[in-house]
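Extended Data, panel c. Modelled sequence:
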Amino acid sequence: MADPVSYSAVTPRIGMPMLFAGQSQKETTVNEALIALDMLLGGGVQGVRSAPPAAPSAGQVWIVGNLATGAFAGRTDALAGWSEGGWRFIQPSPGMRVQDMEAGGTRIFANGWQLAQTPPLPTGGPVIDAEARGTIVAIIAALKVAGIFSQSV
């Protein structure tokens, strides 16, 4: 499904439609902008998908994965949100952050979506410092809770 409406004047970072003087049916433009804001500020994304889910609910958002198919074709890395009017897409800008609920971590957009991976816990070595290892384990746990490192690893 193509975008329901195409706008000639949009914001430079996320492409929200802008009003222009004397415009009729302003509610259409304003509603499209509100849907975009809801997608970005709604708390996160469900996960990453290369194909649209079979039964999405209004307000759910995904990151479009590689080799996208169906309504997601040609939209790799975009945020895809389902609304009553169909799919809406937002092209991310560098530095954009979203909470990936499936992975349990924060994704940052920089030449594609990046998810910080948990480093391996310390093992071995000629000297074992139990206090240092305990501190490292606590730091990694705190970064997982903060969403910096993925919970799934």
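The two ends are 35 Å apart (CA to CA). This feature is highlighted in the accompanying rendering.
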